[in-house]
Amino acid sequence: MADRADLSAPAATLGERIGAELTAFLAERTGPLTAISPDLGPLAQAARAAVLTGGKRLRPTFAYWGWRSVQPAAAPGEAQLIRAAASLELLHACALVHDDVMDSSDTRRGQPAAHVRFGRFHREQGWHGSAQSFGAAGAILLGDLLLSWSEELFASAISCLPPERARAAIEEFGRMRTEVVAGQFLDILAQARGAFDPDEAVRVVEYKTSKYTVQRPLLLGARAAGGSPEVLDALSAYGLLIGEAFQLRDDLLGVFGDPSQTGKPAGDDLREGKRTLLVALAFQAANPAQRALLQAGIGDPALTADGVARLREVLERTGAHEQIEQRIVERAAEAARCLAAGSLRPVAAQALLELAQAAAHRTF
């Protein structure tokens, strides 16, 4: 019961602590930005919207529980770790802003995407040139700004830790940034090739999500805390497994999810031509008529609701939907075994078990 009480206290306030760090940091940075010129007001507003509106705060949460896998609650350095963890939200906001431009996604978390907001502002002002091009340029610059700010916030926090532990955390932060770019490029490469390759889909998941969303944040927190090789190995294995489960659930929600909960139109992943493991497995098992439907529909930006329904039927009838569901369950169970084999603090192991279940069975 002591572990359970320990879990409920920090977990209940963690989101608030991360939010407070982000709010304070953005206030510090957007003020000087608009002091350069009032014309930068829309950029500052877009930065606040990208970071503070919605979001699951997954990466900071995993970084925190990586730290707590080693250190007790309120140990020296925890405040600095929380601040460093908050920087991961700025990095993630950058990735989402750029991702929406690359995917031509109109919405994010139920709101207009950044490039849509900037394009709308251009039209409202009656300016010259293409509103669409202005919107894309504004979003790219916004993402760059958020990336720069994430590095500033991380550096200011992590430098307060003991040098060896700070260097270890910096290594993980660097790998995290490199791997998410690698994963994103592998993703657009898979779409450009147009193949339905399960191995390629799994590789994209590993680098675009598993490492970036779960494994690296966990290791960042644990190495900042001075974690042992045994703890790091357990967290590393857990992170890859739960990261995959999280992305596979995301792939299912992108096709079968409720838009009122996901914040994105149903079937958007199909229209964008995402070469997910879901569609790759369906293509492998499909008959010629079903393959023709997949080839014609996946990547068609004009795909109608009826077209989405037909593709959903193919994903169901080929057994791909069921296979992905089973894979999610298996990954979550295997992740739990990895935690049991590590020497994590009990409260952290319990929190990570709960996060695993939430990632595997979420509806948004």
List the helices and strands and how they pair.
Elements: H1 2-36, H2 41-52, H3 58-68, H4 78-103, E1 107-108, E2 111-112, H5 114-125, H6 131-158, H7 163-193, H8 198-224, H9 229-256, H10 259-262, H11 268-271, H12 277-285, H13 288-297, H14 305-317, H15 320-341, H16 346-361
Antiparallel strand pairs: 1-2
Low-confidence segments, given as residue ranges, are 1-12
Structural class by helix and strand composition: mainly alpha
User: What characterizes the major β-sheet?
Assistant: 2 strands, antiparallel
Proportion of residues in helical segments:
over 70%
| CATH class categorisation | Mainly Alpha
Describe this structure in words.
The chain has helices spanning 2-36, 41-52, 58-68, 78-103, 114-125, 131-158, 163-193, 198-224, 229-256, 259-262, 268-271, 277-285, 288-297, 305-317, 320-341, 346-361, and strands at residues 107-108, 111-112. It is mostly helical and 364 residues long. It has one domain (2-361): Farnesyl Diphosphate Synthase (Orthogonal Bundle), CATH 1.10.600. Strands 1-2 form a two-stranded antiparallel ribbon. The longest helix has 35 residues, at 2-36. The radius of gyration is 21 Å and the shape is flat. Mean pLDDT is 94; it is low at 1-12.
Brief digest:
The protein is mainly alpha-helical and 364 residues long. The protein is built from 16 helices and two strands.
Keywords:
16 helices; 79% helix; Farnesyl Diphosphate Synthase; single chain; two-stranded antiparallel sheet; 2 strands; 364 residues; disordered N terminus; mainly alpha
